[in-house]
Amino acid sequence: MKQLIELKVNGEVYEVAIESHRTLLEVLRESLGFVGTKRGCDEGTCGACTVLVNGKPILSCLMLATDAIGAEIETIEGQAITGKPSPLQKAFVDYGAIQCGFCSPGMILSAKALLRENPKPTEREIKEAISGNLCRCTGYIKIVEAIKVAAESNV
Amino acid sequence: MGNEYSVVGKRLPRIDAHGKALGQMQYIEDIVLPRMLCGKILRSPLPHAKILNIDTSKAERLPGVKGIVTGKGIPRKTYGIVPKAHDEYALAIDKVRYIGDDVAAVAAVDEDTAEEALSLIKVDYEPLPAVFDPEEAIKPGAPLIHEEYGSNISAKILKNFGDIDKGFAEADYVREDRFYHQAVNHAPLEPHGAIALYDARGKFTVWSSTQIPFFMRRNLAKTLDVPESDVRVIKPTVGGGFGQKLDLFAKDFGAAWLARQTGRPVKIIYNREEVFTCTRQRHPMVIYVKTGIKKDGTIVAQHCRIYADGGAYNSTAPLIITLSAYFMMIPYMIRNLRFEGHHVYTNKPVGGAMRGHGIPQVRFGCESSLDMLAEEAGIDPVALRLKNALRANEPHPAQYKIYTCGLSEAIEKTAESMQWKDRYGKLPKGHGIGIAASAYPSGLNNMSHIGAGAIVKIQQDDGSVTLLSGAADIGQGAESMLAQIAAEVLGVTLQEMRVLAADTELTPLDSGTFGSGVTFRAGNAARLAALDARKQIADVVADKLEVSPDDLVFRDKRVFVQGSSDKGMSWNEAIKAVQYADKPMPIVGRGFYHVDAVEPTTLLTQEGNFSPAYSFMAQGAEVKVDLETGQVKVLKVTAGHDCGFALNPISVEGQLEGSVAGGAGQAIYEDIDWDEGRIRNTNFLDYKMLTSLEMPDVENIEVITNDPYGPFGAKEAGEGTIIPTAACITNAVYNATGVRIKELPITPEKILKGLEELKAKAAAKA
Ligand code: FES
Ligand code: FES
């Protein structure tokens, strides 16, 4: 049995018919086409599927889509303003924080949530904030640096 | 060096970074085709069994199921990476050889239906005795995993250089040890996937998360039993590979077969458990190393015997043991060496190429052996390595041609930066430093597939340049590196560059991301293609300016006369000039690079030059070990790195930092945990890798050697750097605790046990 729900993603409301056991990740990717949200494990262990729900980073593979009804959902697609990268995205690009890029959407959203709460984080706080986001390519150093730079440039 | 170039050697953002930051790049799972079906693979629950019968009738009747294929219905065609070692069917025929072996593929309207269909397929197995340990598997009477070989040793190599007996006779210190390097998963963050389409003309188009589109095409054509020209392979954006995405997998074959069977596109994406179990892993390896040195530290002989646990199939079998052998001969001068390599079948998941491919294992053994001997002989580990470090253009016992070698400089600078002299052996208990070194090839001279082509196409009136290359960017930055090379030659910026890579229908032949040959092969091909295009433009511009084409400089979007920069024109004017001169458009530059700088060799038999160039790396680790809990913390890795010339320093640093993360993970955490052939830890909770919190500091010390044959002097960067990491951490842990770890990973239990033993020994002495 499908259920018609409304989800608010990046400020726009979408109506979508889903089975109640669908995760937010599935609905974002498969029903709404927000494929920038990545699936690295589908079991809550890699962080690639991180999106913001009411400003908090959550693992969308662990959240039922129905639990996000009425919430503000932010995905990577909503970060660039009219195609222009956000300062955080720009710092990721400029400081070499992106290699294969599969972790990047989740990393950027985790970083965004951090900077919103704590605009001047210490290096330790940055590392803690992204410790649930695995990256197999970069060794995290350039990611931490990019977040630091974005924080300094006052996002 | 810096100002000689405008684009190469610069810290430029990668050309695909914006798209990735914005979530716009299409990875395999992001691609959706109309009426696409979802495919799934049925897997063996047993480590070794005969397949007596497969009954798919119930599954076929399930509404929504559109196609099923089992081993019974497919051509008896084996595939693999190394032509002479093909031993794997796309789906198991007759028997299964490990838990997870591919048994059937199903296509259905959605994932739930496909999964239900798998549960309805009934397979009758006759269990066979299984063997899980390589040293058990080679004993007489062990169950045979591939009967046709008559033994579980599927590949063997014996290499002799010099006179090993004489060498050991001359040695003042000799020791022999057994080491074990555990199995490691590549764990690219993106799981593997494939999508296939079969069209009305009988042609397949397959999108695959592959590192080698042309190998994929070859293996697909072989297993499907169709001509290669019927298969087109397109590589989308790939989310990491590290060697794991070299091979064909059941998902590629299954998607293609079922697309033809159903007449609809089929997509198969592996889940994380399948990535752990059913793709590839770093070969677990038993390593016996005997080393002899003289009092002054000269290595006089080394004997190494290895058993690489290949799991159920060959994949790269002859190649991995060959790499292990050849990289005993480098980075040090060893005049007398004997190497015995065995690739052994076991009923376990399959070993394959992984960053460093066979070398991290042997170098862990050798670098540990050297440190132990250094201690016995009372020689400083840094001094020992410097004493034996290879030098450029020295005659080499295996006939390597080493044109550039920054090893000594890398060791010296690493030691200096670590304040080695002041700190080694002088730090408080629990705090230590250690060093190790390695080398890595820049592609192999001895594979059938060692050439690469490139095409540079300039037609747009905005002067933009398209580079077509068969090289595969899997996240390491290959496309950006190639774009930088072509842009430098043409005197344009990265803004003008587009790279199309890779599509077997459109892009020239290339051996893909394999053996770290991309920079050398594809990089040189891109350089030559750009030179070819440049020449065509230069001829026209020179005519106009009434100068010789050789006097023209292409730089910063201008074409001008050497020495008088105002005499010239903009890049766009130059392109227009070609157009108005009625020259054929588009301008097409063609480049082909084949390793010809050196004598080729064969894999298994003779001496010869292994690679057109070798990168060198020395790494030093600083660790703290909690003597109460046995926990190891890697504080810092200092890395001296000779990659010839860094085409993009940010990318080279990023590769180094990533390999330190991988190498440190392999040193202290990563370990595939087995239970009778079943992997216990198939997720990231139980298979622990480094997170941002455990990542050590990394200091990158660039050693520039400018290889004469590398594009702009560049050599391999980013694969070899993973090799010394675990070895130097092990040496540092010994320095900190006195505990010599011979079996990776370095767990707290092993440290505590080692400390206990030391205590007991000390007590016995007292
Ligand atoms: S996909 Fe959600 S945590 Fe990995
Ligand atoms: S860039 Fe590849 S996983 Fe982070």
Account of the 3D structure:
The complex is a heterodimer of chains A (about 160) and B (about 775). In chain A, strand 3 (about 50-55) and strand 4 (about 55-60) form a beta hairpin. Chain A has about 160 residues and is an alpha+beta fold. Chain A folds into 2 domains: about 1-80, Beta-grasp domain (Ubiquitin-like (UB roll), Roll); about 85-150, [2Fe-2S]-binding domain (DNA polymerase, domain 1). Chain A contains 5 helices and 5 strands; from the N terminus they run ββαβββαααα. The mean pLDDT of chain A is about 95. The longest helix of chain A is centred in the C-terminal third of the chain and has 14 residues, at about 105-115. Chain A is globular, with a radius of gyration of 15 Å. In chain A, strands 2-1-5-3-4 form a 5-stranded mixed beta sheet, sandwiched between helices. In chain A, helix 2 packs across helix 5 (about 140-150). Chain B has about 775 residues and is of the alpha+beta class. Chain B has 3 domains: about 15-25 and about 445-595, Aldehyde oxidase/xanthine dehydrogenase, molybdopterin binding domain (Aldehyde Oxidoreductase, domain 4), CATH 3.30.365; about 30-130 and about 185-280, Aldehyde Oxidoreductase, domain 3; about 285-440 and about 610-765, Aldehyde oxidase/xanthine dehydrogenase, molybdopterin binding domain (Aldehyde Oxidoreductase, domain 4), CATH 3.30.365. Chain B is built from 19 helices and 30 strands. In chain B, strand 12 (about 205-210), helix 6 (about 215-225) and strand 13 (about 230-235) form a beta-alpha-beta unit. In chain B, helix 9 (about 315-325) packs parallel to helix 10, helix 10 runs parallel beside helix 18 and helix 14 (about 480-490) packs parallel to helix 15. The model of chain B is unreliable at about 595-600 (pLDDT under 50). At the A-B interface, helix 2, helix 3, helix 4 and helix 5 of A face helix 1 and helix 17 of B. Bound molecules: FE2/S2 (inorganic) cluster (2 copies).
